[in-house]
Amino acid sequence: MTTATTNNVSSKVERIEFKRLGFRLELLLSADGVTCTATYTPSGNGTPMTNNELQTFLAQAKINEGLIDSAIKVLLETSALGKPIDNLVIAFGTQMVPGDDSTIKLAVTDSLDDEQEQQNENGSSDNGKVDLRRVQSFLNVKNGQLIGTILLPGEGTPGRSVRGRVIPAQPGLPLEIELVKNIRLGDDGVSLYAESDGRLCWHGKELSVEDIYLIKGDVDFKIGNIVYNGFLEVKGDILDGFTVKSTKGIKVHGNIGVCDILSDGDVSFCGMNGQGRGNINCGGIIRANFIADALIDVEGDVLVETEIRNSFIHSNGCIKINKGILAGGESVALGGIESNIIGTVSSQRTRLIAGICYRDLTDLNQLFNELKDLVARFSAPVKTIDAKQFATTRAEITARIQAVRSREHPGRNAKINVKKRLHEGVSITLGQLNEDIRDGRDGPFSMIENTIEGGIRYLGLTDLSVNAEQIEQAFIQQQQMLKRNLSDK
Length: 489
Known about the structure:
It contains 6 helices and 38 strands. By secondary structure, it is an alpha/beta fold. The strands form 5 sheets. The chain has a 23-stranded mixed β-sheet that branches. The chain has a 5-stranded antiparallel β-sheet with strand order 1-2-3-4-5. A hairpin with a 6-residue loop joins strand 1 and strand 2. Helix 4 (358-379) packs antiparallel against helix 5 (387-405). The longest helix has 22 residues, at 358-379.
């Protein structure tokens, strides 16, 4: 005699048991009804379970979907041998696939990845080395840029139980998000756009674009290299070996080491010791307490409180040292140079160039090198250029030199101010004038080019806002007036 009992051992699993003389069969249905396993146990005297009996049991349990023929064959063969078998999967329906939760598909990439790709394209690959300074974890965006697209929740795919019951699909969860700052939702209801340059921030449900990035400590291996579309503020130092780029400016409360600093805006810091390798490329104004052994290109002014030593500074503004010294290296400033002390007692080589755009200076040096190379080729024992070609090329280079020299720069001021002392050994360039200082001189005074008598014109100290050309023009007018007066007599 066969008996069947159904036992809901829990709310998750359904167990159906069949007993008869000779064996016990237990069918176990998973909570979702997709899987059916069989446990067969022979007992006492009696015949093994037959295929007809198994089909009857399955029909009584209403299991009619996803039957696995190979598993049923194994069950019957094991039964015929009088052996037990545990948890054999004999039926498997179709699982319900939940829909994907709503999320945002980002349209922006890591700026450091973009830079690395560019370096690889330029042939400067790191040969697989791990860059421990590459730990930046935020994404940069630009005003008006598509940040990403909201992907709506998926509907999911329905399933089917081993009893033929349809398992309804479970849709994905909607996205819970709040657009906090500098982000707008597009007219299509799913596109997200930045309304400011900055970094994308996602905290919990809040999404924003922040245009200020504050680092409360040092820029070290924990922070790594930085590429940021916004204003960067560092409460500590920028340690040796790091690259920091920011589009809207950089403020460092501490010091900068042997680093690469790039900014489209202003850069301010306490001090920098570049050890001859650290450099700053600034699109605005540089403000600092001191600068030593650094390479600096700046579009605006360089305003330093105490000193600049052994540095190469190229400025399209002015260079001013408020209280201290300018010594060593080379300083090129389109808008003039001012310092308490220039040079050193030991006559350390110090070169100052005022009233010249450093880009023009670079172009001129390149053109003069081309001219020098041209002359060398023509003067060589075995000429590689004939006289006609030499004359034509020389004329072209000369014209280009003249074109560079004739460039107009509204901020040009070929003037150097010394408030306390100018030491000997300093090389001075004022516009077209070049002169080495052989004897030191106490200040205060201003230096401009003496276009009447040649050499440097020393005069009483005037602010850098007073243009050298205007001062010299006054001297020229005075000289012309004196000549007229003499001729009248």
